Amino acid sequence: MASIEDSVDIPPNQTIYVNNLYEKISKKKLREHLYSLFSKYGQILEIEASKSLKMRGQAFIVFKDITSASNALREMNGFNFLDRPMKIQYSKNKSDAVSKLDGTYMEKKRQREENNEKKINIKKQDRKVTGGQKNKNGETLSVGNIPSNLQPRDLPPNKTLFVENLPDKCDPMMLEMLFSQFPGYKEVHMVESKKGIAFVEFQDESKSGLAMQSLQHFKVTQEKPMVISFAKQ
DNA sequence: AGCACA
User: Which stretches of sequence are listed as region Disordered (predicted)?
Assistant: First the structure.
């Protein structure tokens, strides 16, 4: 039996999912209507609608912030639009429009999974080098003998990791592929002006700690092992 | 009813 509120278990999202919409109007018209109904709740980044078999009668309205989405949901759920009460829930997924803004956007979901598998294999090779006695050049890299520039900072556990010694070409996508394979991964932050460093957030400090141990001194490129510490504060 | 974005 359908519960009174199916939306209860979906966490707030800046995108709302609208359905039970009238299906016999053009996508363009639908988006225009929705825009005029919803723009009063805040800035709309995008309205996504499709007339495909699966997607007709539904739309995704992407707001700039969650508060706008929440107000829109509360006030407009059940609103009679073109003779039908619209049903509104938070979207189950993060919209690409917002991922693009926060730097976590990736071309394709599937591509991400494939890449993750490759990275795991690369990781296994590389980690042995750091943990063992020699690297490929025959230099000694024993654990107690790490060059000071590769020494992680000694800071108390934190759910956010501070990653440094990254190559300049390293971008958020690469880091996401690497870190998102660990449980509790949330997001990567990079600052354009500060090359070579990144912050990676996890659910809590045990999750971040695990990722740190696993990826410590992982080489994104042949000569640059990343150095991972807990972030300050 | 149906949760996408190339």
Answer: 107-157
Domain enclosing residue A176, as ranges = 134-230
Measured distance CA(A175)–CA(A201) in Å, rounded: 11
CATH label of the domain that carries residue A38 = 3.30.70.330
Catalogue the E-assigned strands of chain A. Answer: 15-19, 44-49, 59-63, 80-81, 84-85, 87-90, 160-164, 185-189, 198-202, 219-221, 224-225, 227-230
**Among candidate residues A67, A80, A76, A100, the one with its CA nearest the CA of residue A17:** A76
In a domain, A3, yes or no: no
Q: What is the pTM of this model?
A: 0.50
Question: Is the minimum distance from the CB of A92 to strand B below 7 Å?
Answer: yes
Q: Per the structure, how many domains does chain A have?
A: 2
A52 nearest nucleotide via C1' and CA: B2
User: A95: which nucleotide lies closest, measuring CA to C1'?
Assistant: B5
Which residue is the nearest neighbor of B2, CA to C1'?
A: A54
Helices (H) and strands (E) in chain A, counts: 6, 12
pLDDT digits 0-9 by tens, A47-70: 999 999 999 999 999 999 999 999
